[in-house]
C-alpha cells in the first residue's frame, strides 16, 4: 500500500491549469458546432422520447386502461418510475449542497452537472404522478385554491405532502442551479464574440460584475441555500416513502422506510451521475477537471449507500419476523419466494452484491468496471421500487383479492420515453450551458487561493 | 451632448496574494467606495476590504418564519375553520400531519425570497448598463486576473492621486472607466409603436389561447370532463339494440318486488264478490289504517270521511264515506276503489301496499260505525 499523507490537502484539479485554460475547456462545447456523434446520440434519445409521447397520447386518448394497472395493483409503473426518477435527482443535491457544507472540494467539478441532472430527473419524475391521475390537465386541483366546489385539499395526506415536497424541491434546486450559473454567464458574456449569445448571456448574468462586495453576499446565499437544500432533499424522499409507510399495507407500513428510501435515492443517483460523467469527461476532454479521484470517491459513496440499502433489506425481514405480525411475515416471505421472486433477486444481486466489488481499489479506478456496476445499480434500484410497490399490493390481507400485475407495452413505452426525455435534456444541457462550474473550479485550482503569508 | 463622465480608476493584478495585499492597502488608505473584482471568491478578501458581515441571513430568517406562519394559517383556515373533515379519526388540528407542508413552504419561501432579495435589493440587479461592462478591465477580471477599482465619487478621490496610489501598490494596466454616451443619454420610449404593437399582439395571443383552452379545448376528447363515455344513455337512440332505444323492457310477466298482479281490473263486481279482507281489525292494524288514511285519504275525504275536503274547492269534494251505499259495500269493493280510483279519484295502488289498503278499509269501517253504530255496539 502506498502511504498517503493525510495532513496535506490534495488538489482536486489535476495539472494546475491556468485559469483561462479552464474556462476555455469548459466553454468550448458551447462554441463548436455539434458533431456527428452528438447528432447520433440525440436522435436515439429523441426516438425514445417519441415512443414515450406516442404512448402517452394513446393513454390519454383511450384512457389509463391501456396500462397494466388494475385491481388490486393500482400503483403500477407510474409510481415505480416516479420514485425511481425522484431518487435519481437526489444525488445532485447531495453533491451540491451536503458535500458543500462538508467542504468537500472535489464536489466543485461535478456539482453543476449533478444539479442539472437533479432538475431534469425531477422534471421527468413529475410527469408520472400527473399521468397517473388519468387526466393531467386537471392537475390544478392539487393546489389549495378557493374553487367552485368550495373544497380544500387534504393537508394531512402524504400524497399532498408529495405535491409540496416535489414542487419545492424542483424550485429550490432550480434556484440553486441558477445562482451558481450567474458568474459563469458573466464570464461567458465577456468572452463571447457572437452578438446574439452576448445578449442572451448578458440577460442571464443579470449584469454580474465579479465584484467582491457581491461575492460576499453571494457566498452567504450559497451557504444558506445549501443549508436549506440539505434538509429539503432528505425530506423529499422521506415524504415519498410516507406515501407507502403511512398506509396500513403489510410490507409498506414500516418505520424504516424514510432512511431506507433516502439511502436508496442517493445510491441510484450517484450511479446515474457517475455513468453520465464518464461520458462527459471523455467527450469534452475534462479528464483533469472531473478526475479519476473524483469518480473513485463517488464509487465509495455508492458502496456505502449500497450497504445501507442491503442493511435495510435485511432489517425489514428481521422486523417482520420479530414483530410477529402474520400478514407482515407473509408479505416478506412472499417478496422473496412468491410470484415476484425474480424481481426480488434481481434487486438483491444488483444492489447488494454488485457494489461489493468496489472494495477492490482496482475496480474503483477502472472505468469500464465501475460503469458496469453503476448500470447494475440503476437497474437494481428500479427493481427495488417495483418490488416494493407491486408485491405488497398484489397480495394483501385477503387472498380472494390477490392478483398478478403485468405491465403492458404502453407502460414500457412510457418508461422508455422517460429515459428519452431525461437524456435529451442532458444532451441539450451540454451544448447550451457550461456543464462544469467555471468559477467554482477556478477557486480550487492549485494556487488559486492566497497563502496569507504562511509560505 | 456626449460628455464622458469618469466612473472609476482601475488596476489589475496577477496573483491572489497580490490582490489581497492591494485590497487591504486600499482600505487602509481611507478609500471607501472601491471594489475588488475577481473571477471567483478569494478567501480572506472580506477582511482585507474591511467589509461588515453579510446581512442576508436575517432576510432569510424573516422570510422563512413568515413562510411557516403563512403555511400554518393556510392549513388551519382551510382544514380546521372553513371545511373541517374528520380524517383517520384524528382531531381537526393535528399538528404532526401539518409539519411536512409547513416545512416545505418555509424552505420554499425562504429560498426564493433570499435569492430575490440578494439580486434586487443587495445587488440592484438586473443591471446591464453599468459603466464597467464591456471594458477590458471587466474582461480581464471575468477570466483570470484580479482587479481593484476606485470610484470617482469617493470622498478623497482625485485623479492624479489615485493613479499614483495604484502605481504604488503595484497595479498593472491602470486605466480609467467612463460612462458611455448611451448610458448617460439612454431614455426609455414607452410610446414606441413597435413596443405598443408588441403589447397588443401579446394581449391578443394570450386572450385567444385562454379562450380557446377554456371554451373549446376543454370540450374536446379527451379533455371533455368525461362528458363523452362509451355507455348507453337513457332516452337516447341506440344503434346497438334492434328497437333503437337504450332502455330495456323487462321480460313479459315480470312483476316488481312485493307486488301482486291485480286480478279484477275493470271488474268492481268481481272484486266486491271475491276479495276477502285478510287483515284482522285489531288495535295495531286500526292504528296503521288511521295513520295511512290520514296521510293519503284525509286531504279529500277529511279526517272522518265526511267529504269535507281540505282542498277548498280546488278539487271536487267527494261524497261522504258514511252513506248507506258505502256501508253496504263489501271490503273488496272499497279495495277496488283504492286500486283503480273512481271517476276523478285517482288510483292509490302505487302509494299504499296491500296490508295498508286493508288496514285503511278496517279504519273506514270503524269510522262508519262511530256515526251509525249498531244496536249491539251500545251494550
How are the SSEs placed, and which strands pair?
The complex is a heterodimer of chains A (455) and B (379).
Chain A: H1 19-31, H2 36-62, H3 77-101, H4 108-132, H5 158-191, H6 195-205, H7 212-245, H8 257-283, H9 292-323, H10 326-337, H11 341-353, H12 361-364, H13 367-394, H14 409-432, H15 438-444
Helix pairs in contact in A: 2-14, 3-4, 3-7, 3-8, 3-13, 4-5, 4-14, 5-6, 5-7, 7-8, 8-9, 8-13, 9-10, 10-11, 11-13
Chain B: E1 6-13, H1 16-28, E2 34-37, H2 45-48, H3 56-82, H4 95-122, H5 136-143, E3 146-151, H6 159-168, E4 172-178, H7 181-185, H8 193-216, H9 268-274, H10 283-301, H11 324-328, H12 331-340, H13 354-371
Antiparallel strand pairs in B: 1-3, 1-4, 2-3
Helix pairs in contact in B: 3-4, 9-12, 10-13, 12-13
Question: Level of helix content of chain B?
Answer: 40-55%
Number of DSSP helical runs of chain B? 13
Note the gap between the termini of chain B.
132 Å
Overall morphology of chain B: rod-shaped
Fraction in beta strands of chain B: 5-15%
Q: Which spans of chain B of ≥5 residues are poorly predicted at pLDDT below 50?
A: none
Order of SSEs of chain B: EHEHHHHEHEHHHHHHH
Instruction: Indicate the proportion of strand residues of chain A.
Output: under 5%
Low-confidence stretches of chain A: none
What number of domains of chain B? Answer: 2
Order of helices and strands of chain A: HHHHHHHHHHHHHHH
**How many beta-strand elements of chain A?**
0
Label the structural class of chain B: alpha+beta
Most residues in contact: chain pair = A-B, 74 and 72 residues
The total tally of domains of chain A equals 1
Tally of strands of chain B: 4
- Radius of gyration of chain A, CA atoms, in whole angstroms: 23 Å
Task: Write down the overall geometry of chain A.
Answer: globular
Seen as an oligomer or otherwise, the chain set is heterodimer
Radius of gyration of chain B: 49 Å
Provide the residue-averaged pLDDT of chain A. Answer: 90
Amino acid at each position: 500500500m502506498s502511504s498517503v499523507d493525510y495532513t496535506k490537502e490534495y488538489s482536486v484539479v489535476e495539472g494546475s491549469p491556468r485559469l483561462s485554460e479552464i474556462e476555455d475547456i469548459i466553454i468550448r462545447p458551447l462554441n463548436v458546432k455539434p458533431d456527428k456523434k452528438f447528432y447520433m446520440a440525440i436522435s436515439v434519445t429523441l426516438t425514445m422520447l417519441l415512443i414515450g409521447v406516442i404512448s402517452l397520447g394513446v393513454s390519454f386518448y383511450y384512457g389509463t386502461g391501456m396500462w397494466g394497472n388494475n385491481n388490486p395493483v393500482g400503483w403500477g409503473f407510474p409510481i415505480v418510475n416516479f420514485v425511481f426518477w425522484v431518487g435519481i435527482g437526489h444525488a445532485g443535491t447531495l453533491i451540491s449542497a451536503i458535500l458543500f457544507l462538508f467542504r468537500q472540494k472535489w464536489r466543485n467539478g461535478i456539482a453543476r452537472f449533478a444539479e442539472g441532472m437533479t432538475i431534469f430527473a425531477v422534471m421527468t419524475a413529475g410527469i408520472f404522478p400527473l399521468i397517473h391521475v388519468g387526466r393531467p390537465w386537471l392537475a390544478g386541483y392539487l393546489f389549495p385554491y378557493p374553487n367552485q366546489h368550495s373544497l380544500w385539499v387534504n393537508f394531512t395526506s402524504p400524497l399532498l405532502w408529495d405535491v409540496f415536497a416535489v414542487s419545492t424541491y424542483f424550485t429550490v434546486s432550480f434556484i440553486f442551479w441558477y445562482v451558481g450559473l450567474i458568474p459563469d454567464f458573466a464570464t461567458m458574456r465577456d468572452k463571447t464574440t457572437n452578438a446574439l449569445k452576448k445578449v442572451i448571456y448578458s440577460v442571464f448574468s443579470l449584469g454580474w460584475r465579479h465584484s467582491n462586495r457581491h461575492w460576499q453576499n453571494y457566498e452567504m446565499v450559497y451557504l444558506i441555500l445549501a443549508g436549506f437544500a440539505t434538509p429539503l432533499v432528505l425530506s423529499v424522499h422521506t415524504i415519498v416513502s410516507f406515501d407507502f409507510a403511512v398506509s396500513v399495507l403489510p410490507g409498506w407500513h414500516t418505520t424504516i422506510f424514510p432512511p431506507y428510501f433516502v439511502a436508496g435515492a442517493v445510491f441510484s443517483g450517484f450511479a446515474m451521475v457517475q455513468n453520465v460523467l464518464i461520458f462527459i469527461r471523455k467527450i469534452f476532454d475534462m479528464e483533469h477537471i472531473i478526475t479519476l479521484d473524483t469518480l473513485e470517491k463517488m464509487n465509495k459513496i455508492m458502496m456505502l449507500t449500497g450497504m445501507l440499502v442491503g442493511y435495510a433489506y435485511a432489517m425489514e425481514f428481521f422486523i417482520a419476523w420479530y414483530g410477529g405480525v402474520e400478514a407482515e411475515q407473509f408479505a416478506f416471505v412472499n417478496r422473496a419466494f412468491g410470484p415476484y421472486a425474480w424481481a426480488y433477486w434481481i434487486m438483491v444481486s444488483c444492489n447488494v452484491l454488485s457494489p461489493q466489488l468496489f472494495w477492490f481499489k482496482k475496480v474503483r479506478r477502472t472505468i469500464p468496471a465501475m460503469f458496469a456496476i453503476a448500470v447494475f445499480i440503476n437497474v437494481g434500484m428500479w427493481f427495488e421500487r417495483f418490488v416494493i410497490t407491486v408485491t405488497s399490493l398484489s397480495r394483501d390481507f385477503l387472498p380472494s383479492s390477490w392478483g398478478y400485475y403485468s405491465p403492458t407495452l404502453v407502460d414500457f413505452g412510457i418508461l422508455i420515453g422517460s429515459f428519452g426525455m431525461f437524456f435529451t435534456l442532458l444532451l441539450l444541457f451540454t451544448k447550451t450551458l457550461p456543464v462544469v462550474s467555471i468559477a467554482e473550479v477556478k477557486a480550487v485550482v492549485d494556487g488559486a487561493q492566497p497563502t496569507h503569508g504562511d509560505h | 451632448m456626449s460628455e464622458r463622465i469618469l466612473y472609476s480608476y482601475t488596476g489589475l493584478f496577477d496573483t491572489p496574494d497580490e490582490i489581497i495585499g492591494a485590497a487591504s492597502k486600499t482600505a487602509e488608505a481611507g478609500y471607501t467606495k472601491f471594489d475588488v473584482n475577481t473571477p471567483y471568491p478569494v478567501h480572506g478578501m472580506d477582511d482585507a476590504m474591511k467589509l461588515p458581515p453579510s446581512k442576508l441571513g436575517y432576510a432569510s430568517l424573516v422570510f422563512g418564519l413568515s413562510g411557516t406562519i403563512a403555511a400554518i394559517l393556510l392549513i388551519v383556515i382551510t382544514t380546521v375553520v372553513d371545511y373541517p373533515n374528520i380524517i383517520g379519526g384524528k382531531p381537526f388540528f393535528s399538528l404532526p400531519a401539518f409539519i411536512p407542508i409547513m416545512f416545505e413552504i418555509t424552505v420554499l419561501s425562504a429560498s426564493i425570497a433570499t435569492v430575490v432579495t440578494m439580486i434586487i435589493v443587495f445587488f440592484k440587479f438586473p443591471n446591464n448598463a453599468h459603466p464597467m461592462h464591456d471594458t477590458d478591465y471587466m474582461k480581464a477580471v471575468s477570466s483570470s486576473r484580479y482587479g481593484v477599482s476606485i470610484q470617482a465619487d469617493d470622498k478623497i478621490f482625485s485623479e492624479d492621486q489615485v493613479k499614483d496610489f495604484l502605481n504604488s501598490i503595484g497595479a498593472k494596466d491602470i486605466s480609467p472607466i467612463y460612462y458611455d454616451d448611451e448610458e448617460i443619454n439612454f431614455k426609455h420610449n414607452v410610446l414606441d409603436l413597435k413596443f405598443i404593437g408588441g403589447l397588443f399582439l401579446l394581449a391578443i395571443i394570450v386572450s385567444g389561447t385562454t379562450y380557446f383552452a377554456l371554451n373549446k379545448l376543454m370540450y374536446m376528447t379527451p379533455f371533455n370532463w368525461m362528458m363523452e363515455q362509451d355507455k348507453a344513455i337513457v332516452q337516447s337512440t341506440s344503434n346497438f339494440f334492434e328497437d333503437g332505444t337504450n332502455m330495456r323492457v323487462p321480460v313479459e310477466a315480470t312483476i316488481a318486488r312485493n307486488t301482486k298482479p291485480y286480478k279484477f281490473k275493470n271488474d268492481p263486481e268481481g272484486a266486491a264478490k271475491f276479495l276477502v279482507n285478510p287483515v284482522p281489525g285489531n288495535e295495531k292494524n286500526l292504528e296503521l289504517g288511521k295513520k295511512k288514511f290520514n296521510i293519503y285519504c284525509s286531504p279529500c275525504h277529511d279526517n272522518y270521511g265526511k267529504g269535507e275536503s281540505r282542498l277548498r274547492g280546488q278539487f271536487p269534494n267527494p261524497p261522504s264515506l258514511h252513506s248507506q251505499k258505502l256501508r253496504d259495500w263489501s271490503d273488496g269493493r272499497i279495495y277496488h276503489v283504492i286500486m283503480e280510483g273512481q271517476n276523478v279519484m285517482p288510483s292509490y295502488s302505487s302509494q299504499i301496499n296491500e296490508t295498508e289498503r286493508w288496514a285503511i278499509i278496517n279504519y273506514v269501517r270503524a269510522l262508519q260505525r262511530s256515526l251509525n253504530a249498531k244496536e249491539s255496539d251500545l251494550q
